[in-house]
Amino acid sequence: MLTTVLQFAFFMFSVALLLNLLRFFRGPDLLDRILALDTIYINSLALLILLGMWHHTSFYFEAALLIAMLGFIGTVAAAKFLLRGDIIE
Description:
The chain is mostly helical. It has helices at 2-26, 30-55, 59-84.
């Protein structure tokens, strides 16, 4: 039962990732592209966690934690750049 649920969740997050990539490349303005990039890294986190559950290893969880930290910093930097025009004051 768990195998079926993991496969279904992996498929659904993969579809969501592809749709986010489509929005990233076809986004009408910069804000849509930044939001798509933010959701791309969140979907990548979900896929890594599901892969870690599938292979019963903690290596993927550590990679997901690293991507989460870098994604948060990137989102904050992009927001500061859009608000002020520079990242570091």
